[in-house]
Amino acid sequence: MTPDRLRPRIWHTDWMILRQLARVIGHDVAGALKPRDVVVDFGCGQMPYREVIEAKGVVYKGADLGPDAELQIGADGRVQAEDHSCDAVLSVQVLEHVRDLDAYCAEIRRLLRSDGTLFLSTHGTWLYHAHPEDHRRWTRTGLICDLEQRGFAVETIDALVGPLATTTLLRLTGYAYVMRKLPVVGPLLAGTLSVIMNLRAMLEDRITPAHIRMDNACVYWLKARLAG
């Protein structure tokens, strides 16, 4: 069963990661923008965060390759939107799937107004997951460097889920994948194990020192502005 990314349940294997993302997006994005500000969700998928952003009176526009997105992304990576037409760009778990970082970042710069903000999350550590491709993982310093080399000034960066909890979640993902294949009881067993290991991971994350979490995160969440 695919989890609700805005309201994940503890019996989902991605619960800990998704709840952290929902929290920071609700606080940082929806909380920082004003009514009638425009945010483009660049690589929006099924637009799971639209509700929480629009609840603040912000104008949400989803951009993706598929026909269901409000803003279409062309084969050249260009979004069907005017230059400097949005106050913020949201990029959630997209950057690791981007083949051409230069083109993707250039398009974000084109879309943003001069005082606009980029809100971005991507993996530091995780399993290979092709949608349709999977190209990269980052360290904290590497992610900052890659964005700064492409015209952004990173203002804040946070680590979502540290290394100790991540190892537990990686094992959970593998165990649950196998369990779900068992007839009748498989989904129940997988859900029960998810609850136990998610609680364990939450405890492990709380006891992990902050500096270790920051340098070895499962997911990084950052806010950046156009350089200069």
Any overview of this molecule?
The protein is of the alpha/beta class. The protein has seven helices and seven strands. The protein has helices spanning 15-32, 50-54, 101-111, 140-148, 163-179, 186-207, 210-215; strands at 38-42, 59-64, 71-72, 86-92, 112-123, 152-160, 219-226. The protein has a seven-stranded mixed sheet, with helices on both faces. It is globular and about 50 Å long. It starts with 14 loop residues before the first helix and ends with a strand.
Summarize the structure.
With 228 residues, the chain is an alpha/beta fold. The chain is built from 7 helices and 7 strands, in the order H-E-H-E-E-E-H-E-H-E-H-H-H-E.
Q: Hey, roughly how much beta strand do the residues contain?
A: 15-25%
The dominant shape is globular
Low confidence ranges: none
Rounded to the nearest angstrom, the distance between the terminal CA atoms is 45 Å
The count of β-strands is 7
SSE layout and pairing:
Blueprint: H1 15-32, E1 38-42, H2 50-54, E2 59-64, E3 71-72, E4 86-92, H3 101-111, E5 112-123, H4 140-148, E6 152-160, H5 163-179, H6 186-207, H7 210-215, E7 219-226
Parallel strand pairs: 1-2, 1-4, 2-3, 4-5
Antiparallel strand pairs: 5-7, 6-7
Q: What are its keywords?
A:
single chain; 228 residues; alpha/beta; 7-stranded mixed sheet; 7 helices; 21% strand
